[in-house]
Amino acid sequence: MSSSIKKIGVFTSGGDSPGMNAAIRAVVRTCAYMEIDCLGIYRGYEGMIDGDFIPLNARSVNNIINKGGTFLKSARCPEFRTPEGRQKAFDQLQSAGVDALVVIGGDGSLSGAEIFHAEHNIPYIGIPGTIDNDIFGTRYTLGFDTALNTVVEAIDKIRDTASSHHRLFFVEVMGRDVGHIALNAGVGAGAEEILIPEEDLGLDRLLDSLKRSKARGKSSSIVVVAEGDRTTGKNVYELKEYVEQHLPVYDVRVCVLGHMQRGGAPTCFDRVLASRMGVKAVEALLEGKTGFMAGIRDNDIILTPVSEAIKGHTKIDKELIRVSDIMTI
Amino acid sequence: MSSSIKKIGVFTSGGDSPGMNAAIRAVVRTCAYMEIDCLGIYRGYEGMIDGDFIPLNARSVNNIINKGGTFLKSARCPEFRTPEGRQKAFDQLQSAGVDALVVIGGDGSLSGAEIFHAEHNIPYIGIPGTIDNDIFGTRYTLGFDTALNTVVEAIDKIRDTASSHHRLFFVEVMGRDVGHIALNAGVGAGAEEILIPEEDLGLDRLLDSLKRSKARGKSSSIVVVAEGDRTTGKNVYELKEYVEQHLPVYDVRVCVLGHMQRGGAPTCFDRVLASRMGVKAVEALLEGKTGFMAGIRDNDIILTPVSEAIKGHTKIDKELIRVSDIMTI
Amino acid sequence: MSSSIKKIGVFTSGGDSPGMNAAIRAVVRTCAYMEIDCLGIYRGYEGMIDGDFIPLNARSVNNIINKGGTFLKSARCPEFRTPEGRQKAFDQLQSAGVDALVVIGGDGSLSGAEIFHAEHNIPYIGIPGTIDNDIFGTRYTLGFDTALNTVVEAIDKIRDTASSHHRLFFVEVMGRDVGHIALNAGVGAGAEEILIPEEDLGLDRLLDSLKRSKARGKSSSIVVVAEGDRTTGKNVYELKEYVEQHLPVYDVRVCVLGHMQRGGAPTCFDRVLASRMGVKAVEALLEGKTGFMAGIRDNDIILTPVSEAIKGHTKIDKELIRVSDIMTI
Amino acid sequence: MSSSIKKIGVFTSGGDSPGMNAAIRAVVRTCAYMEIDCLGIYRGYEGMIDGDFIPLNARSVNNIINKGGTFLKSARCPEFRTPEGRQKAFDQLQSAGVDALVVIGGDGSLSGAEIFHAEHNIPYIGIPGTIDNDIFGTRYTLGFDTALNTVVEAIDKIRDTASSHHRLFFVEVMGRDVGHIALNAGVGAGAEEILIPEEDLGLDRLLDSLKRSKARGKSSSIVVVAEGDRTTGKNVYELKEYVEQHLPVYDVRVCVLGHMQRGGAPTCFDRVLASRMGVKAVEALLEGKTGFMAGIRDNDIILTPVSEAIKGHTKIDKELIRVSDIMTI
């Protein structure tokens, strides 16, 4: 491949997600395979501004495919939101001889790269790394599958104690604006109800549903709540109080799963996805492309313009909401 | 829905796979939701011939979504291969008032249902339950995703000891005719080589690759081998001996993962897939369909005629073979 | 063995813990082995008062050794605290022909049995089932080892994201009065600080320690806090605010692990312990003993009078506190 | 502490086991705490002879407490069995200024250290790192608890498929000379029979037991076999053939768990044990002790002369054999 690109910089940015290390490894090894240089940038845009770089070769990324987090670290960087910050970052990349970038992160990180490219004309390809699955242009974001399994395993454990005591649990899972984790993990964990921002269940229907569940002889109940859900007008702690007042038959508990959802060894799916996206990102750069995000559609790795990807969310799956309703009969 | 179907029989057949219980649960609960009866058939076609049935309601399938195996048991049944056996089975279903069937199993099980339907005109829908992912008409068979994670977690453990001792491991995984598990889990586990029936690597190229790997300073090597692979003309034990003779620099070990690959709590993916396929199967029957298999394509649950599904295998993914080659630089 | 005991009742009471099912199984099978009857009592003392019983034989407890929770359910029962409630319970046992009891639970449950025995002279043996490890007379309570692993695995995941972002996490674990889970899991997870009720660290020393940790270049910090700890005068949320004010260099997060700590498949240790304690409990009853609790000391299953066991807690291990201090250098 | 020891060398030797990294970390950090130097020796005695050393400080061992294997690598070293080899090793240590050693490994590794000390008078303390639990002087060797859980989790998976198909599985686990893994994991996994070198069951009794098991309606059977067991005169593959001939009612399968038993993240127990033993080893050296092995007895970390530790094995637990017999009724 006769490309003018001789050195690619790779970094992770924003919230971390399982599979980021696997994606870095794939970028690094594809560079090695294509016989171009690869430079790791620590702490995302912050490290770019500081020139906190490390040369990476195929052996630098041994034994990281199965590690959660990101060994290049991540950070949020207010300074990069200013033209001055971005100029500093560009100067650092110039000094280091970086011709192109692979950015691994969520929609904020991709937007940053898009602006950076508009100003400084440095080619880049994005890899959607976030557990939230909220990026348009890919069926799965990197880390989503792992997070689902982490949540489902935690709820399996909670179910043990819930069904030993005839209890009702509100389990809050991540998802500030979207309910993908809640809906999928809720169905996977056999939750009795699932509260997501996209679907207005309402407090009354929740109470009705819990009453019916009890009447049908269910020994315990799990309600999965997306952290961003406000369709009931209440957070999980308020929901607990409300249900205890209005349905005193239940002994109610709350569990907020929190940041453990971001960690852990990635699943096979996320490792393979990361590897394929990493290869695609480097290949696209070498083909002269820029401003695209790698994504998966059916079983194909595809490219979507970042400008489109950051505009919209993947829609919640109406059919899966229906499956959930049927399963909780 | 005005359908003539009043009672659906559900059973699992052939080798078991994680997610079968979740699929049974989905079939049972969809029947309850649609207000029709559901009858569980134990031990597949064998139990059908014996009339080994159990009525199932929504509560019968509490707390099984996360259990491996199949609580309806499974069996291979030579008698069902004879017209007399199938007649007995049909008579039993008639006595029990079963109008339609949902069969959960691999291609052998689906073929059986197809013949049964041709002879006795009983409607059926199939759900592809097998870890091998070798059925045409679905991107993922039920249990494949769980098996991949089981394999990858086992190889992660083997990697610990391999890299502590500079060892080479041949790890045999399931896949009698196809290399899907080997290829995906091999990429996910960061295997140095992957031997699958679909891709003739040859012994010489394997040796060359191992030599280069050693030369590049890799501290250990994992070669994943599909059990059905004969492209080297050798099984894993013979490969060990051959490499020890021709590459004495390596301390070689063999690990055959075996039947643990069929068990374990299903992943979130397999639980959701099972739930969606179960709903689809019952709905299809109530819509008057027969002879189809539920499958997933991108994110849609689709129906494929069983006659087509059992004809061919899902092809191995050439792009993933390429990704694997690049990753092992 | 010539004992007058012909039928043993077994039940679980109070908070559930992993290994309770394995203990029930062991009691049931030992009864079968000794050729005496075994009656399961649902929902602890509540089910005893209600006569909610089920005969159990060796096959009733197939495939439960690896299940969390308790299939006999558990409950707290205010009525049993009254002489009238206990009279009802005794009458139910008499009607059912129960000669002796095995109670599996924490110190409250054992105290109940002790009073019951004093009033009605029914022989009983206790098995210490609680994740808190707070019962005198046994090195390990049933479920403690499993809970430690659940906590350590969760913190391993949190560490991934903590070290990707240079964050400080306060992780609250169970232990209302005692710090056994916090101390052991804290050492196991490599926590930077551990706050337990038994050891007054104080806020100032915590701040100092975090400052030093930062100065030594630690990229992230985990502070494990027993839920019952008030040595700092603050709960985890107040600690977060306090540290953010006084050590603004840290980006602080809170994670309350909650009830998932009570569930999950028991570890091998807890399964073996449950099996041994179950055998011991039945054997002790058949030898005419009563009012003892089975416990483990070194590798021996021993008996301690319940009157002693419920008086005191196992002391926190000073040497392990020292190990923790050394490890966090 | 006024000791003449200024620099301690630490290494792992022989087969690796989970917890070795945690033990190295504990040795390194205790040295840092005591303000003495610590030198890592790669590849055990082999690296000692080669002078393959690395200085280690408190930060060198960040984030390894939860990693399987040993980052210092391990090896078996024939040259160290010769006086010349040991002389070379001693010279290397002298040049590097190493005053004392901590050796982490099995009985072969401890024997090597004992001879080395006799010849060259270099103080050492041993830490028993092996999954086999076959060293006298400690209730638990490092890695044993983790290996038990790995085995039990694998058999749980095998049980899923065994009970779906009414199958009999022979599962071979590690233990060349001793049956500790087989006995404990067998009880933990609810195995129907357990074959260990220490207890001569004999083929006839095995057949009888399997017949009775079938007669009692067990739907599946797991027989756990220690790899070193020859009490039946047959290995697992021969056992399979024998049972298929003499008990054709069974569909028999074999599973050899192999090297995955040596890997994986250590359990909380092994991490805490490693931390305590590491502290003890350094403290003992600084107190002028040599030739001891750290061990655990009840909850105390104790020292046993290596000369005694390597003489005998921990005896198999007769009471646990009896528990196993009762459980398989």
Automatic annotation (TrEMBL), chains A, B, C, D:
GO terms for cellular component: 6-phosphofructokinase complex. The active site is at 132 (proton acceptor). Residues 7-285 form the Phosphofructokinase domain. Its EC number is 2.7.1.11. ATP binds at residues 15, 76-77, 106-109. Its main location: cytoplasm. Keywords: Allosteric enzyme, ATP-binding, Cytoplasm, Glycolysis, Kinase, Magnesium, Metal-binding, Nucleotide-binding, Transferase. It is an enzyme of class 2 (transferase). One of its GO terms (molecular function) is monosaccharide binding. It catalyses: beta-D-fructose 6-phosphate + ATP = beta-D-fructose 1,6-bisphosphate + ADP + H(+). Transmembrane segments: none annotated. Mg(2+) binds at residue 107. Its cofactor is Mg(2+). Substrate binds at residues 130-132, 167, 174-176, 227, 253, 259-262. Allosterically activated by ADP and other diphosphonucleosides, and allosterically inhibited by phosphoenolpyruvate. ADP binds at residues 25-29, 159, 190-192, 216, 218-220. The keyword Aminoacyl-tRNA synthetase does not apply. Belongs to the phosphofructokinase type A (PFKA) family. ATP-dependent PFK group I subfamily. Prokaryotic clade 'B1' sub-subfamily. Homotetramer. This is ATP-dependent 6-phosphofructokinase. It comes from Lentiprolixibacter aurantiacus.
